[in-house]
Each structure stands twice: as structure tokens, then as C-alpha cells.
Amino acid sequence: SSVDECSSARHVSMIKFAFLVGHCAAWGRVGHERINRVAQSLLVGSQRDRIRHLLHSDVIDIAHWEDLTSSQYPPSKDLHWHQQEPEWTCASQLGNKGHIKCDDHSAEQKSLYCGLAYFFEEFASKAMLQEFPALEEPINTPKKLDVLIEPDLPESSDLRWLVTLMGDLHQPLHWLRQRAYGKEVNVSYRGEAMTLLELWETHIPRRLPVIASPDAMRVDYEARSTAWVQKVPTELFRDWAKEVAAIVCEQIYPAMEVNHADGTRSIADPFVVDEALYQRWLQLANTVLELGGQRIAFVLVDILTHKKHKKHHMEGRGIHHSTRWRSCFMKNVLLSFILVPSILALLMKHRRMGGPSLLKLAGVRLKG
Q1: What is the rounded CA–CA span in Å between residue 177 and residue 240?
Q2: Which of 62, 163, 271, 294 has its CA 20 to 30 A from that of 235?
Q3: SS in 3 state form for 342-366?
Q4: pLDDT tens, 31-54?
């Protein structure tokens, strides 16, 4: 029957995916170490100590987490990749026409986006989340992840997972299963043969330039985080996923594809990566990794605030997240720029027209 055929096709697809992820890696350890190093450099004062306490290690030292968990419990490999049914293409957009939620349609619950949402909400304060505007599109965060080695992980493991998956979020090829996330694309660079996935996962991260100075990195971080603080991280994950996925369709595959007269596209086998393209991709990877490190730092600091809020809430005290305060403050500043000059102009016009002094009127009123 057609139902049996669909079930069989889905089963074959799942077997194929299991084979692929079993032979793929996310950002190699070098890539994860770099992105984590950026994140750690942005943690200041007690933030670094408090995160070290939660992780039971420094952020830099968990670059091996994927290798460790994948060897201990292979089903957990699914979490490092985006999966949806049916799979998206560059023509159809990530998720369901750009909409992503954990509904096993636009994002499977055992895949990258839903894993990010799950591990963040393990730390989130419900009271703090309520301070944000209601989401226009629900996330449907899974209540549990069946691909984990055990249902209730220690807090340090939850946070290690979150940091690692945020690194994977910033690997563009992790979002598009087409061509097996780049594993089915053979490339050659300077005579060295590899897959496109290997080029991005291991080759490029080993040739990145020196990380920018902490001061320069902090300038970028401060400028960007003012926008991030206005949204809950689970919504940011969705925005960031769309942004990184777009890189595959705009800056990776278009540079390799040949358009044919019949409307089809193909990639040479092997595709020779010339020096100009390699340098463009090198700079692109550097930008994405540094941005990912900044975002990890932001989410880690946000988690510290959530934990503090939870603690105070249990003690009967409360602290307020800065999001609304900043938003209201900025609104008041903007209003002051408009209202104060207008009021002063009216007062000056009133005086020029010979009207009585408002201060004198106020004095008479006070005496009366």
C-alpha cells in the first residue's frame, strides 16, 4: 500500500542518515576549541569562575565533548545536525518555508535546533521567560531527548551539550542534509582530496588567522549583544539557524555549481577549490566562528542570570531581567528628545506673546 511504501521510504531514509552521521563529525575539535576560546575570553570577573563551577571545567576544555558523547552513546550524534521531514532545499527555505519549531516536520525533536532549545530550558527561569513578549510562533521544546544516554543528566553535562551544540549551530553545512551535509561532494585543494564536509570541519579550522584581541572582540560583542538581549535565547537560536543556513545556499554551493540550459545544476566531481575561493571561505569560517563564540558567551551569561533569578525566587525574592528595563529606558530617552524641546518651544512662544510667567502663576497658586 502507499502507506507501507511511505513507511518503508522513511525507514530507508533514517538508516541512510544513521550511516552518514556515523561517519561524519561536527566542527572538529580544533574548530570547537577556537569557538570556545572566543567565548571564554568574553567572560569577565566572576562570570568565568561561575561558569567553570557549572561546567566543572573551563569552556575551552570541553572541545572534545562531541567525540566523548558520540563514542559513549552513538544515537546522540543526531543532535549535531538539522533534520526535518520533508527535507528543505535552498529553493524551499529552512524548516517549513522559513518557519522552524519542534514538530517533527520543520525540525525533528532529536535534531540540532530542538536540542538547543531543550538544553537552554533546563536552566531557564520561567518567571524570567514571562518577561519577554509572547512568541508569535511556538517552539514546542521537547520534554525529553530520547537520544541521550540517560534522561536526567547532571547540570554540567547539560551545559556542555548546550555549548557544543551552539558551536554546531555555526557550522553552515550542519543545516542542509542535501548531498549528505557535504559528505557526498568531493573536492580538491592544492592536490589534496577530501569531501566538502571535511574541508569545512577539519581543514579550514586548522588554517584560520590569529583570533582578534580580547579588546577588539569585546567591542563587537557589546555592539551585537544590545540586540540579542531583547529576545529569549530559544528565539535567538531560531534566528541564528536561519542566518547560518543561508550561508550554505548563498556562499558555499553557488560558488561550486554550474547552471545548465535545462535548468539543472551540477557540481564537478571532484570540484577543484582554487586559492581565491579557499581564502573567501577561510574568512567566512573565521567570521562565523568568532560570532558563534560571542553568542555562546552571551547565552552563558544569560544562564547565570536565570540561575540567580531561580535562587532568589525560591527564597521569596525577585530580580528583574534587564531586557524590559533597557527597552523602557530607551523609549523614555527617545520621548525626552521629542517632548522636552517641544515643551520648551511652547513656553518660549507663550512668553513672547506676552503671557504671564508660568513661574509667577505657580507662585501665586502655591501662596493661595
Answers
A1: 18
A2: 62
A3: HHHHHHHHHHHCCCCCHHHHHHHHH
A4: 999 999 999 999 999 999 999 999
Return the residue matching grid coordinates 570556545. 36
Which helix (H) or strand (E) covers residue 291, if one does? helix 275-314
Q: Is the backbone peptide bond immediately before 172 cis, with ω within 30 degrees of 0?
A: no
- What does DSSP assign to residue 99? B
Beta-strand (E) ranges in the chain? 186-189, 192-195, 257-259, 265-267, 271-272
Mean of per-residue pLDDT scores for the chain: 86
- Of the candidates 310, 300, 249, 257, which has an alpha carbon nearest to the alpha carbon of residue 127? 310
Cell of 75: 544515537
Longest dimension (CA), the chain: 95
Predicted local distance difference test score (pLDDT) of residue 120:
98
What's the rounded Cα separation, in Å, for the pair 263 and 218?
A: 46
The rounded distance, in Å, linking the Cα atoms of 13 and 244 is 25
Q: Inform me whether the pLDDT recorded for 330 exceeds 50.
A: no
Give this prediction's pTM. 0.81
Q: What is the DSSP letter of 262?
A: T
Amino acid found at 56: H
Q: What is the pLDDT of residue 367?
A: 46
Burial class of residue 140 in the structure, from the number of CB atoms within 10 Å of its CB (0-12 exposed, 13-18 middle, 19+ buried): middle
Q: Is 29-313 in CATH node 1.10.1740.10?
A: no
- Give the integer Cα–Cα distance in Å for 172 and 154: 30
Count CA atoms closer than 13 A to 181's CA, side-chain side: 27
Evaluate whether 100 touches 113 at the Cβ level (below 8 Å): yes
What ranges in 42-80 are assigned the alpha helix state H?
A: 46-55, 65-72
- 135, 136, 137, 138: CA torsion to nearest 10: 40
